Amino acid sequence: MLPLLARKYLYRYLIVAIGLPILARFLAFAGQSLEKRTGKDNFVSKGLKSAGRFAQRRADKSQGKKEHKSQQSRR
């Protein structure tokens, strides 16, 4: 049986490693499908796509992935 402290970190790791990338893809997909349905960007689709990109950046950062040069040059 895992000690309580180790279990907490295991659950946190599973959420970050599995749940966050799935959530990011779902949000980005929802924003794109909404944009496709209406034919243009609107407030909700922009917000969903932005939230998906943010969640993906957080997931990449927590997994230790480096940013691409094209993304660094934008900042």
Structural write-up:
The chain is mainly alpha-helical and 75 residues long. The protein is 81% helix and 0% strand. It is built from 3 helices and no strands. It has helices at residues 4-38, 43-62, 69-74.
Task: Indicate the topology.
Blueprint: H1 4-38, H2 43-62, H3 69-74
Helix pairs in contact: 1-2
Largest beta-sheet details: none
Overall mean pLDDT stands at 81
DSSP summary, beta strand count = 0
Low-confidence stretches: none
Series of secondary-structure elements, N-terminal to C-terminal: HHH
Oligomer: single chain
Task: Please give the alpha-carbon distance between the first and last residues.
Answer: 47 Å
Amount of helix: over 70%
Measured on Cα atoms, how large is the radius of gyration? Answer: 16 Å
Can I get a quick summary?
This protein has 3 helices and no strands. Helices cover 81% and strands 0% of the residues.
Top keywords for this entry?
75 residues; mainly alpha
